[in-house]
Amino acid sequence: MGVMRRFLRHAAMLLAALAAATPAFADPPPETPVRDDGLISGYWFASPETRAIQDDEFSNPGLLYVDRGALRWREPDGAAEKSCASCHDDGVETMAGVGATYPKVDEASGALINLGERVNMCRVRHMDAKPLETESEPLLDLTAYIMHQSQGMPMAVTIDGPAAPFFEHGQALYNQRVGQMDLACTMCHDQRVGHYLRAEHISQGHLNGFPTYMMRWGTMASPHRRFQFCNEQARAEPLPINHPDYNALELYIAWRGNGLEIETPAVRR
Amino acid sequence: MTPTRSLIALVIRWCGPLCAGLLVAGPGAAVDRELRPYEVVGDEIPLSLTGAPGDPIRGREIAAGREGNCLACHHMPIPEEQFHGDIGPDLSGIGARLSPGALRLRLVDPKRLNAATIMPAFYAVEGLERVDPYYRGRTALSAQQIEDLVAYLAGLTDESVDTN
């Protein structure tokens, strides 16, 4: 199954590249690693200056979130007076590889959930605490901390079994033209990879750096915030964070990047 | 298909969307972005959408600015703006290659020439999904703005020099 899906993915990417009027993969920098699976991290499409900020542990602002997340992990909150560590011990050990598998189907509810929703589920179900606000600093601290524990590990979402219908829905959304500008994700992130949209160098649109520090906003951003931004550029109605359609889209996009090493926290313009 | 039918497609798309526009857009906007009927002949829209020629200076401003956003995808002879995109062809000298009528059709609805194109239809309101409510029922550019752009592009007859 996995092999078949992988094959289909590469066939789809190749077809998309062939169908484009202009050659795909125009010019990520020459030092970009060439992989058998054809995947390229968004890192290689960022400017050398931006890459240098991501690489430097003293200047990458995303690491501030990770550090704060480590502190929050041990901070009791809610009526049950528990912290994440009360149940999950040292996150460096218990969370290694966990973020790589999100979004994922929650067995209890049958819904596809992203990592931020999973964190809030623990707060509500297990800590008697209020859910943290979407895109709030405390939530991004925790998701950045958890994703960081998978740094260097391959993205590894599951799309079989209960995830299959969500995956198919996400794939359809990825290929659907939306907005006054009538654009589908695939038109840029498969068919125009390496081209410039004004100053923006179009990447394959992967999620291996999320949550990502966005310099233009001066904050970390979840995948859904990035989707909203790409929707706004097409003058399409952005969906709310955690919308089921965005979760399905996130699953499809994560799967496109299965195998790509996680880099959280990435830095982008 | 008769030759006349293949040659002349009469497009009369009445502004059902105008009503939606009145509901969501601010005052004036709905009228400005009203879709007026136009006629496609071959691969051109020969007649001005407003009945008058456009202003090339304003056309250049629209191309360089956020509203037209042509620089997102095209190189144009607008040197004071940095970072021209390379999704579509370079438009320097486009006025020597395409007639005003052909330019007009490419701005109004390029999907009539290539259904799969990434070039947006700047004067269309139909066949679009999940348009942001702010823009719903409105064309991306007004008839006047299309004419201003046509006038500007038609004047780009020299490959190398910024003629404006």
Topology of helices and strands:
The complex is a heterodimer of chains A (269) and B (164).
Chain A: H1 2-19, H2 48-55, H3 62-73, H4 84-88, H5 91-94, E1 104-105, E2 112-113, H6 115-127, H7 137-148, H8 164-175, H9 185-189, E3 196-197, E4 200-201, E5 212-214, E6 219-221, H10 223-233, H11 244-256, E7 267-268
Parallel strand pairs in A: 5-7
Antiparallel strand pairs in A: 1-2, 3-4, 5-6
Chain B: H1 3-7, E1 8-11, H2 16-24, H3 29-32, E2 38-41, H4 56-64, H5 94-97, H6 100-108, H7 143-154
Helix pairs in contact in B: 4-7, 6-7
Which strand order do you get reading across the main beta sheet of chain A? 6-5-7
End-to-end gap of chain B: 44 Å
Task: Quickly give the CATH architecture of the largest domain in chain A.
Answer: Orthogonal Bundle
C-alpha geometry of chain B: globular
The H-and-E topology of chain B, N to C, reads as: HEHHEHHHH
Describe the overall structure.
- The complex is a heterodimer of chains A (269) and B (164).
- Chain A is mainly alpha-helical and 269 residues long.
- Chain A folds into two domains: 38-58 and 155-268, Cytochrome Bc1 Complex, Chain D, domain 2 (Orthogonal Bundle), CATH 1.10.760; 62-148, Cytochrome c-like domain (Cytochrome Bc1 Complex, Chain D, domain 2, Orthogonal Bundle), CATH 1.10.760.
- Helices cover 42% and strands 6% of the residues of chain A.
- Chain A contains eleven helices and seven strands.
- In chain A, strands 6-5-7 form a three-stranded mixed beta sheet. In chain A, strands 1-2 form a two-stranded antiparallel ribbon.
- In chain A, strand 3 and strand 4 form a beta hairpin.
- In chain A, helix 3 (62-73) crosses helix 7, helix 6 packs across helix 7 and helix 8 (164-175) packs across helix 11 (244-256).
- The N and C termini of chain A lie far apart (37 Å).
- The relative contact order of chain A is 0.19.
- With 164 residues, chain B is mostly helical.
- Chain B has two domains: 1-31, no CATH class; 33-154, Orthogonal Bundle (Cytochrome Bc1 Complex, Chain D, domain 2), CATH 1.10.760.10.
- Helices cover 32% and strands 5% of the residues of chain B.
- Chain B has seven helices and two strands.
- Chain B has a two-stranded antiparallel ribbon with strand order 1-2.
- The A-B interface holds A 19, 21-22, 26, 176-183, 187-188, 191-192, 195-199, 232, 235-238 and B 71-73, 82-87, 111, 116-118, 120-121, 127-135, 138, 140.
